[in-house]
């Protein structure tokens, strides 16, 4: 009886999306994801979900875009010090400044109101700077054929960041 059951799906990350249809007991169907490149991830504290690319971590671009639209703040952008900005202008380099879209007074009031309650964890802001977020896949890709999950925050994020730092430290010590 221990030999019953199917092989695991062992879902891999690849741009060539492969999902197989599997007939199971009772004539029902399961979707076995063998290769995936995107997933639907939710950001719990902001109550927002976006479809994003899966790397070995999650691509931050869709969440950055939402944050900019919702709060009017561009997170993850490197802050230039005034001296460096002045030096660049003196050299005559044409900086690619994104054109500011004119907003109605209603939208500006709404953004200002949201700004008052806005708070962003420093660890998450740091990850936005790199353009990649740590996330957990909570769905079962071998059963439902999708990779859905949530962005790590708070204590859970700190725990995994410590684990990753420890792992990096070991690798550097051995090399």
TrEMBL record:
Pfam families: Ribosomal_S8e
A cellular-component GO term for this protein: ribonucleoprotein complex
GO molecular function: structural constituent of ribosome
InterPro entries documented for this protein: Ribosomal_eS8, Ribosomal_protein_eS8_euk, Ribosomal_Se8/biogenesis_NSA2
Basic and acidic residues compositional bias, start-end: 88-119
Keyword list, A-Z: Ribonucleoprotein, Ribosomal protein
GO biological process: translation
Domain of life: Eukaryota
Region (Disordered): 80-119
UniProt similarity note: Belongs to the eukaryotic ribosomal protein eS8 family.
PANTHER family noted in UniProt: 40S RIBOSOMAL PROTEIN S8
Protein name: 40S ribosomal protein S8
Source species of the chain: Linum tenue
Taxonomic lineage: Eukaryota, Viridiplantae, Streptophyta, Embryophyta, Tracheophyta
